[in-house]
Amino acid sequence: MLKDGSAYIAERKGVLKKYNPSTKTTDVIATIPVNTKYTSAEGVVREAEEGLMGLTFDPGFEKNHWIYLYYAHPTEKKHVLSRWELVDDQLVEASKKDVIEVETQREVCCHTGGGMTWDKAGNLFLTVGNNTGNQQAAQTDERPGRASWDDQGHAGNTNDLRGKILRIHPEADGSYTIPEGNLYPKGTAKTRPEIYSMGHRNPWRISVDSKTGFVYWGEVGPDAGEDSEIGPRGYDELNQARKPGNFGWPWFVADDQAFPVFDYGTNKPLAKKDPKNLINNSPNNTGLEKLFPTEPTFIYYPYGVSEKFPLVGSGSRSATGGPVYHLSDFKNPKRPWPAYYENKWIAADFSRGWIMAISMKENGDYDSLERVLPNYHPVQPIDIKFGPEGDLYILEYGSNWFRKSDNSRLIRIEYNGGNRKPLVQIATDKKGGTVPFKATLSSDGTKDFDGDALKYSWKITSPGTAAQTFTTANPVVNFNKTGVYTATLTVTDTKGASNMESLKIIAGNEPPKVAVNLAGNQTFFFAGKPIQYDIAVADKEDGSLADGKIKPEQVAVSIDYTSQGFDYAEVVQSQRSVDASTQFAVARLLMDKSDCKVCHQPNSKSVGPAFADISGKYKGQAGALDQLVQKVLKGGSGVWGEVAMPAHPSLPIADVDVMVKYILNSTDKTLSSLPVKGEFTPTIPKGDNGNGSVLIRAAFTDRAVSGAKTIPAQTSEEMVILRSPEMNAAEAPIVKGAELKALGVAGLGFSVVPFANSYLGFNDIDLAGISVIELNASAQKREGSVGGKIEIHLDSPTGPIVGTQEVEIAPQVDIAKVMAEMESEKKNAKPGQVIKQRNPFERPPVKFTLKPTEGKHDLYFVFKNDNAKAIQPLMSFSKIKFFQ
pTM of the entire structure? Predict the structure, then answer.
């Protein structure tokens, strides 16, 4: 982050990007050559973690323009910290200075570190991973030719920079000096003076407390799920260093839990080391044999539940780290965080998707931790920093490893201090009627986030009619004269902050009544299975469809499949912005929200062709729909002249499908509406995830009423939303006792982790015709899950049970064996054969056979295990699927 709010982002493949806050765009400003592979002993080339691993700006950047990049040299086995001048967002190649090099191996993966920060004295801290193969619990293979698997020669070696936090003082000429007070004084035999701390496995996001000088970082630990003879289960650590020291890897983890040195020749564990009298006698050690005693670990947690730090949760883990907050670190910030967070360490976990505020006692000891923004679930936060205006920036890596993640993003969190205006919501039980009539106005949903008491002031006005005022929250209003009335609610809090909303009520014309009647299930659609529908319309003044006074062609009927996350509320109000008498109301609403109108008009050429011309060219052609959908998504040129069609990769495929159907049929006046009675078979557009919804909508506009005053026509519409039979469990509107965790590699979304006597609830679910419900629930021992029983109840957590199932702890998975099998499948694949990726922890779904149930009910999933402790998760799952 720079002082102007620019954010610079390093990508592993060597790309340096800049986010420009004024244009809100992200651009590639440089690409440097880096290595991203390693070659195994068997000669197989595989993806490594290395590449461009870190960046930082010099504290004097505004004057000297120096940027530091830490990267894997493209051809030589070393990691390099180099300095460039960055001028007009270009790396000046002639200015490049190689500051420090770290010798590495490329025989096996992993762990690179790459975090950088500065202290007040201008000293640069650099985290360096252990660069050792992952084998067993700790890597201590002392056999000849196995040095790459012996961390005693890396992290535990005082004469090696790997597995360390380095502290150096960069100089103007590109060299560096050694500041006083590192772990070993300059000139000490068999040591590197750059080492600030040692005994690290994979330290990465590092920060320095500007007041105390204490150093903080996240430390990624080993993978064992349980204690065994080869060592303790794995722990991640959030660490604090008050001074240079030894943090124990590869012999110790967490609170000095010891790994024995493993004898790979006899396949037996040997003796454990003494943390207070630590000797490194490995043949691969080129440094001192006698090491400093180990320093204490600040916070540590396993895959399973942590008894000491239960709030960190359970499951996959990857302690990231983050900044320590001090208001004094900012110069006149616009949005500083409140004093509550002063002196707290704001730290994240990459895998668990949480951000914690960690409080320390006056002497720096751990005091407590609590969630920051518990309703925000970042998808694999890989870095976290404060910007110059006090905002917190989170870089979300996204769901996919070693390949592009469409959901990677830079997030900015602003603190909104001071008094907040009330949020006003209003409604009416009648939007019109023949006079006289009464309408009840409602302020339900109005709230004040500060908890202030609220004053309500309603004013109902119409030209030529005396205004009515009310000071109750939900008044009943008499309408005795024809006219168009505006009802305005002003809400004021105790500090004088106010907000208002208005709505219109038409007196003198009864709104028509519109109903969408369906045969079969009223909650879900099933792709490929027809939906029978029948529209009913009745109007007090105009008649009805049933008596023939309202003609079918006067009723607009549309059925659309829309993408996951589509905002239905905007369609309900669509008569305000688009023509309610067309079946393409949804399409036109989508186009109004997009940039279509910048280049296209319905009937005249603009920058691009008219929709009518596109329809004339493509309508009726085989494959035209799919062709144009892809053109909208990917862009194109050459068909309609020199102007290129820009790509729209962020638009959902299903929404583009709806818009293109409208464009292709925009000249056909006979397609203004579907029949008022018929059958519709939903299909999923190619490339869509199938988790969208089917919107069945009917609208009718009656005739205006003439008289002393012309009373406007009234439009009524009814929309039935049929949802996908596969629901995201994390979207349950009722949650008690369960927590959400961001999914990582498994894909975008969240998993639900229930505890004993917790439950999820879904409102108004029609089980008509539903015979089976499946949950992708699994109880993994490595995540601390203990299993339990799931009960499906109707209408309340204690209501009638329609299904029950036990979820037992899943069998242990030999990851090494599964990975070897997958590697073998890949190696032996025939040309052109696609090997399906497997999730080794995936289990068969938990299947419930339901008791026959009719009508809509609130549906509750209740989780039980009388033997589970309060902090023990029972299982995890993300999907609920309904079957006919």
Answer: 0.71
